[in-house]
């Protein structure tokens, strides 16, 4: 991996999460969590908390690990998913992120929930994991691999730290081939990836992540498109984002309203993207 490219990308990721709009949006609208919700039944699109919990429970189900198993949450943010898996699935979760202010919150919230003995949080980049070989039963990413400068290098690291038979789960975005979407959708996707520092999302044309996961040495790779499960939240973000995005564009500062822009553009260009769950296993030796 080219360190210059990588550190340049990490700086962009940090800048994106450090924006006032990102801090306010994630903290006050999603309570510090930074992933989409899972909607089924008659859940209102505004029931964010319940939808977020359901998405976390879907992750626990896909990991399928027994209580006490050790898992790595790569790109853990403020640790909402880690706490959910520790408290509701009994897992021991090691979270890792590049944002020190997120990790402070993760530790405080884990302590407040009495989960210190089942969670730990480390500052670091998932391209270079500071953990020994075969030290986890499971590794997951929740909406963060799209930020990677070099997803191949990240997947090799995940393979290294997983024990044989260990489970890998990704909840990530992909997109259809450029020629299968409208020209305006391709432009919108490129804009969102650039402003939200998500270079790997552009790389993740349908099927590409599966191939990268296989190339990293995993077997039993399956991907499920669950876009319809999270669409109600995209619709809610569209409604909330229309006015701020309009203002951002009017004053020529779209980068200051990048989350509003993403909500609006994702809703208006649904042919440009999908939301998928990929699961795989590290083969037994
Ligand atoms: C959309 S947020 C998701 C956070 C968390 N998984 C959740 O669901 O709430 C993506 C997170 O990945 C982190 N991240 C991005 N690139 C990273 C890297 N190279 N190493 C570690 N964390 C990274 C970001 O700092 C951010 O906290």
TrEMBL record:
Molecular function in Gene Ontology: methyltransferase activity
Gene3D superfamilies (alphabetical): Vaccinia Virus protein VP39 (3.40.50.150)
One of the protein's GO biological processes: methylation
UniProt feature coiled coil, ranges: none
InterPro entries xrefs: Erg6_SMT_methyltransf, Methyltransf_11, SAM-dependent_MTases_sf
Domain Methyltransferase type, chain residue ranges per copy: 72-169
Keywords on record: Methyltransferase, Transferase
Name the record gives this protein: Methyltransferase domain-containing protein
Organism: Actinoplanes oblitus
């Amino acid at each position: 991996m080219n360190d210059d490219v990588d550190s340049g990308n990490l700086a962009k990721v940090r800048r994106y999460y450090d924006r006032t709009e990102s801090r306010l949006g994630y903290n006050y609208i999603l309570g510090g969590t930074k992933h989409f919700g899972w909607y089924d039944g008659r859940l209102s699109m505004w029931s964010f908390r319940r939808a977020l919990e359901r998405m976390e429970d879907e992750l626990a189900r896909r990991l399928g690990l027994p209580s006490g198993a050790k898992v790595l949450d790569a790109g853990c943010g403020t640790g909402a998913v880690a706490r959910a898996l520790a408290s509701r699935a009994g897992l021991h979760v090691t979270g890792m992120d590049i944002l020190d202010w997120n990790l402070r919150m993760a530790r405080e919230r884990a302590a407040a929930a009495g989960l210190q003995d089942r969670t730990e949080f480390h500052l670091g980049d998932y391209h270079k994991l500071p953990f020994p070989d075969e030290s986890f039963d499971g590794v997951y990413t929740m909406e963060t691999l799209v930020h990677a400068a070099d997803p191949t290098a990240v997947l090799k690291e995940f393979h290294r730290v997983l024990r044989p038979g260990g489970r890998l789960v990704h909840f990530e975005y992909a997109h259809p081939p450029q020629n299968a979407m409208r020209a305006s959708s391709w432009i919108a996707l490129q804009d969102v990836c650039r402003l939200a520092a998500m270079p790997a999302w552009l790389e993740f044309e349908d099927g590409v992540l599966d191939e990268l996961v296989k190339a990293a040495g995993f077997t039993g790779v399956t991907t499920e498109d669950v876009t319809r499960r999270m669409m109600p939240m995209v619709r809610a973000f569209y409604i909330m984002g229309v006015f701020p995005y309009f203002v951002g564009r009017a004053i020529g500062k779209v980068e200051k309203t990048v989350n509003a822009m993403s909500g609006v553009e994702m809703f208006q260009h649904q042919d440009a993207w999908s939301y998928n769950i990929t699961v795989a296993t590290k083969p037994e030796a």
